[in-house]
Amino acid sequence: MKILCLNGSPRKKGNTAKIAERFCETAEILGNKVKIVALRKLKYQGCIACGACKKKSEKCVLKDDLSDILKKMDKYDVVVFGSPVYYGDLCSQMKAFIDRTYSYLTSDYKSRLTPGKTLVMILPQGDTDEKHFADIFPRYFEFFKWYGFKDGYSIRACGADEKDGKTMEKALKEAEELAAKISMAK
Ligand SMILES: Cc1cc2nc3c(=O)[nH]c(=O)nc-3n(C[C@H](O)[C@H](O)[C@H](O)COP(=O)(O)O)c2cc1C
């Protein structure tokens, strides 16, 4: 299986990176091919609503560091999005990437992607209450189902910054278990 992992966190060694790395390491050990991309290293903008991807082009016409990733995403079976929760949503780095995936829809809003992919979202947050921001994953998964994604999973770490490290320990274990589950399913 081929796995693409995009980390939207601006923190190189932050909670998102730790969970994403654990997921990817486990998946690699289990024989999958994994590519990790740190969005913080790239220069890009969000969708400019030019409409070119609905009229004259089958892909996003903006030329920046996302062009190559957007072009290649269809080659992957599993797509992992890592984002810290910022103001009750994804961080802007990840949101801008997702807005650019608008180019995966044709003029009649059908998906240009190969169906059957799996989405994983890694979502650490400062707040310890799991009820807070529980809407993020289902809200975005709806859009990815529209793109033809089949399965979707989230790894949340509610209270990821707590000093005792228990929340992160649990999330890292979940990352290992989910990587194993997805590897066995395919
Ligand atoms: C700009 C900003 C906004 C944030 N907004 C929220 C929020 O709405 N809810 C929350 O629980 N945590 C919030 N946090 C805390 C982060 O989600 C938390 O520290 C997370 O573990 C950071 O992940 P990282 O280490 O991968 O960057 C915010 C942090 C920043 C810097």
Short description:
With 186 residues, the protein is an alpha/beta fold.
Describe the structure.
The chain is α/β, with parallel strands linked by helices and 186 residues long. The protein has a single domain (2-185), classed as Flavodoxin domain (Rossmann fold, 3-Layer(aba) Sandwich). Helix content is 35%, strand content 18%. The protein is built from six helices and five strands; from the N terminus they run E-H-E-H-H-E-H-E-H-E-H. It has helices at 15-29, 52-55, 67-72, 92-100, 136-146, 166-185, and strands at 2-7, 33-38, 78-82, 118-125, 151-158. The protein has a five-stranded parallel beta sheet with strand order 2-1-3-4-5, sandwiched between helices. Helix 5 links the parallel strand 4 (118-125) and strand 5. Helix 1 (15-29) packs parallel to helix 6 (166-185). The longest helix is centred in the last third of the chain and has 20 residues, at 166-185. The termini are close together. The relative contact order is 0.19. The model has no long low-confidence stretch (mean pLDDT 97). It binds flavin mononucleotide. Flavin mononucleotide binds next to helix 1 and strand 4.
